[in-house]
Amino acid sequence: MAVQEAREGVLPGEHGGGCTCGDCPHGARAGHRRAVAEFLLMREGFAAGQGLPAAVAHSASASRQWVSDELSQSAAVVAERGRAEGEVWLARLWRRTAFTVWALIGVLLLVQALTAIGAGWTSARTAGLVAAVLVGGALTAASWFHRARGGALAPLIGEDNRLSTSRVVAASWVLFVAYAVLVLVGRLAAASGHGDRDALIAGLDLARGAGVVTVLAVVCAIAVLVRRVVGQRVLNQRLQKVRADRPRAADLLTDDAGRGTFADIQYVMIGTVALLFAVVRLARRPDQLPDLPWGLAVMVLVSAATYVAGKYSEGGRPVILSVVRSREAGDLDAPIRTGDDIEIRGAGFVPPGAGTADRLSRMVVRIGPVHVHVPLVPVPGGFDNPRDDVLTVPVPADVEPGRVEVQVVTAAGVETNRCVIDVTD
To answer: Which residues pair with 364 in a beta bridge?
Structure first.
């Protein structure tokens, strides 16, 4: 579809005159889509052997380098347009978050009005609605002050520009507990009798809300701990992180590469179930903090521990296992010489989320004192080089014969171990 759009030269929804600027949402989106379509068209053409100039067509190494450079330049344009679209998308997000908050308040009002038929309107319904308006007003104000960074979602976006699962879960519990306390405050303000006021104050006793308070403390502590753990692992080169163009809702359930992860999924699932139980308990007993059963609270704690363990175990430093001379069909076996291609075998060369061409083009192999950029080798639908387990690079003529160290630097800036090879004349 994108290749066909690039050939036709027109994108649906594009501004008149071919606007591809980043000053408006439609222009940024159209500019990014056009850059992606042009890149895909170029990659598929090169993969089919088309578009090579006659000056480099006679040399396999020269044509490969020329193709890699052309793809890298096109990928850089795609990345730039993607960042521009992400910034515009974040700037518009605050209106969506504010609208969503007030839409939920409208749903709450509708539910309370429907359930009040026959039972009558009570002070608890009024207190719940007032508390929702106060929380909604606070979130709307926060959205406006952080409108350039995603509105109310700004504190939930991590340093890698992705939604943080731990922060979202913690923020959900914080908002719920704040809403529950505001409901009790509203009822206390409307209570006229001493007995009613004493009962409402007793509803805040720790003995009744111990389960909710425990879960709140744990999820908030985990949000802080996970940020510390991830930051330290990145600095110690034990975890590879690349920045995303913009946050997505799928970030809550997936890793940086977009694959679903068990630790995140079970943490969100169990936390959501426990939160829904607490919401129902508050609706049934609005005169006290929700008494979350200890069995359910322990389930949340076990889920949180699993999530933290998953954060400790994910990732790992890239490693070179071996380096061999790359041999094509018909070549004779021989030692590594300058000008030959070498095949670097290992693991973790492509960090999660770094599978795009602009990230792949940033990979570098140090062969002795020479820095060699890993060439992009296109195939239909993707790239044959580089891969997560194999890299192929030429040995430049500037490498002196003898024992030479080889080291890979990934797109995340993490260095592998050093592997020694023998280069002959």
So the answer is: 373, 409
